[in-house]
């Protein structure tokens, strides 16, 4: 291991929890447990010599690079930059305005509290912005993109790019972005069979409306729940499409 890095034989409960979440969301992950944990005492650390590792930052502004191997990178506090590199990684920015880049592999990115920027990279990734106003970019692959973190006044920007992406506006228990705030979906693509995930079905209190929320000359589609704007499909009118082509339910089929 690099000089100044301590080997730890036991893994923190948070590391195990993050790994378990990643395993449940990404069956492609092949991590069998983290064998080494590196605690970063400085503010910039590169590692390319450990196959499976957990790298933990500080409450300052850290830059952490995973390179090869299945990594768990945790930034803790501060405005951090985390780069998973190759293989299947779990990145957790923690508190602060963080930038997370998954790289090549099936990656799970969590921004945490703060205004974060998450970039999935290649293959199928899961992105979770957390609280704050986040910018999420899936990259190539079939990505799951969730900006909401159960905070107040969250304005998130969701971009899928190439692949069959799922933009998440709700789960089986909750409708996301209620109150002041909403998610903007910048590149919804029917041709790529993108989907927007909601709680329940469209007839359960949802409605669609056309307007201009994003400032361009092209009309957007607003997604409302009981009159509350929760999402905007930018530069597209999806009101006349078959709902089954656009929406999927987090609880049961539309």
Please provide a written account of the structure.
There is one protein chain. The termini are far apart. Mean pLDDT is 83; it is low at 1-45. The strands form two sheets. Strands 2-4-6-8-10-12-14-16-20-19-18 form an eleven-stranded mixed sheet, with no helix packed on it. The chain has a ten-stranded parallel sheet with strand order 1-3-5-7-9-11-13-15-17-21. Strand 18 (206-211) and strand 19 form a beta hairpin. The protein is mainly beta. The chain contains two helices and 21 strands. The chain has two domains: 13-163, no CATH class; 189-254, no CATH class.
Topology:
Layout: H1 13-25, E1 36-39, E2 44-46, E3 52-56, E4 63-65, E5 70-74, E6 81-83, E7 90-92, E8 99-101, E9 108-110, E10 117-119, E11 126-128, E12 135-137, E13 144-146, E14 155-159, E15 166-168, E16 182-185, E17 195-198, E18 206-211, E19 220-225, E20 228-233, H2 243-246, E21 247-249
Parallel strand pairs: 1-3, 2-4, 3-5, 4-6, 5-7, 6-8, 7-9, 8-10, 9-11, 10-12, 11-13, 12-14, 13-15, 14-16, 15-17, 16-20, 17-21
Antiparallel strand pairs: 18-19, 19-20
């Amino acid at each position: 291991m690099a000089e100044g890095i301590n080997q730890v034989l036991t893994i923190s409960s948070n590391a195990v929890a993050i790994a378990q979440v990643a395993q449940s969301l990404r069956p492609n992950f092949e991590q069998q447990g983290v064998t080494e944990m590196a605690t970063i005492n400085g503010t910039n650390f590169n590692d390319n010599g450990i196959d499976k590792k957990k790298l933990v930052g500080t409450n300052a502004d850290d830059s952490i690079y995973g390179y090869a191997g299945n990594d768990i990178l945790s930034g803790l506090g501060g405005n951090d930059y985390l780069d998973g590199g190759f293989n299947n990684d779990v990145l957790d920015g923690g508190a602060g305005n963080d930038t997370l880049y998954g790289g090549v592999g099936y990656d799970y990115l969590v921004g945490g509290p703060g205004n974060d920027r998450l970039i999935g990279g290649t293959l199928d990734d899961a992105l979770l912005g957390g609280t704050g106003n986040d910018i999420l970019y899936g990259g190539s692959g079939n990505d799951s993109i969730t900006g909401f973190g159960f905070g107040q006044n969250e304005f998130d920007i969701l971009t899928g790019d190439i692949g069959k992406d799922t933009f998440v506006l709700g789960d089986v228990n909750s409708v996301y972005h209620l109150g002041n705030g909403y998610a903007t979906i910048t590149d919804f693509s029917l041709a790529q069979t993108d989907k927007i995930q909601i709680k329940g079905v469209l007839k359960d209190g949802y409605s669609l409306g056309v307007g201009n929320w994003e400032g361009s000359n092209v009309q957007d589609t607003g997604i409302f729940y009981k009159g509350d704007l929760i999402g905007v499909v930018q530069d597209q009118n999806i009101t006349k499409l078959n709902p089954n082509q656009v929406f999927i339910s987090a609880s049961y089929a539309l």
